[in-house]
Amino acid sequence: MKTSSSEALPNNASTFCVSADDGHDVDAALFAAPEPVAVVVIAPATGVRKEVYFSFASFLQKNGITALVFDYVGIGLTATVANQTRTVSEWIKLDLNAVLTRTLERFPGSPVILLGHSLGGQLIGLLPIARRLAGIVLVAVGVGNWRTMHAPRKYWYGIATQLLIPFSIRVFGSLPRWVGWRGEQLPPSAALEWSRWCGSPEYVFSFLGEKDLQTIATLSVPTLELLFSDDPIATPSAADVLLKYYEQLPVERRRICARTTDTGGIGHNGFFSRRSRALWPDTLTWIESQAGGER
To answer: What is residue 4's predicted lDDT score, i.e. its pLDDT?
Structure first.
């Protein structure tokens, strides 16, 4: 691991780069707890920088769990010209795989749990190393096809992913704000691949070969799924489509009604905001139980 710099890194974290198998550096931040009960790797959503997860990572750290957060190559500090050929598939098969591999190597005596947000949890089954995880937490994870989303958001999402995003990438080489994209700029190859996936009712699973589908179907790791009533993207329907491919995954499914919380709304990304911190202890308890360290 090589040290690196990061923007707005809190004093309770350190940062380093993990080298993926193709030589690209994955920028990561480590929130180390002394004698941790477990290590949680937080895998980001599409176009979401690691800084979004710092508050939740600090919460885990304060409760005796080491947390590691990273940016996919081409996002954040690695958004360089050299990294603009990255695809979404490579974010999982190269970047996430490298982070999990190095984490298991660095913390050989600690249970390692993946917490995947949206994209970060969709394709964990592709990675053989996932069999070594002590648990998986899926936060707002489902397929990204517009048909499974809530109206009226789904209609704009369909127009954006199937028309505006491919058009803007091919004409401008980037995603202008007028297409409705509010995340970080995506590498053009990643944006176009993601757009293709979003056009299929089965999302990415329409594009996977039989071997990959079988690998996903045989993953069996204790899993907690969190969905939120005001999330227009990761709806129960979207989660159902995804989980039917994870045939052997033991999943505890929790539906959180945003109206019964004091968060002011959760949506697709709000779980990681400080305003949702009242929701965090239940997830912490589940993580501790999988690590054998419930207090």
So the answer is: 43
Please state whether beta strands 112-117 and 135-139 pair in parallel, antiparallel, or not at all (unpaired). parallel
Within 10 angstroms of residue 244's Cβ, the number of other Cβ atoms is 12
Can you list the domains of the chain with their CATH numbers? 2-145+213-291 (3.40.50.1820)
Strand duo 38-43 + 112-117: pairing: parallel
Q: Which two tokens stand for residue 128?
A: 């053989």
pLDDT in tens, 54-79: 999 999 999 999 999 999 999 988 87
Render 197-237 in DSSP notation, one character per residue: HHTSTTGGGGS--HHHHHHHHT----EEEEEETT-SSS-HH
H/E element, 106: helix 97-106
Q: How many CA atoms lie within 13 A of 244 on its CB side?
A: 9
Q: Which amino acid is at 144?
A: G
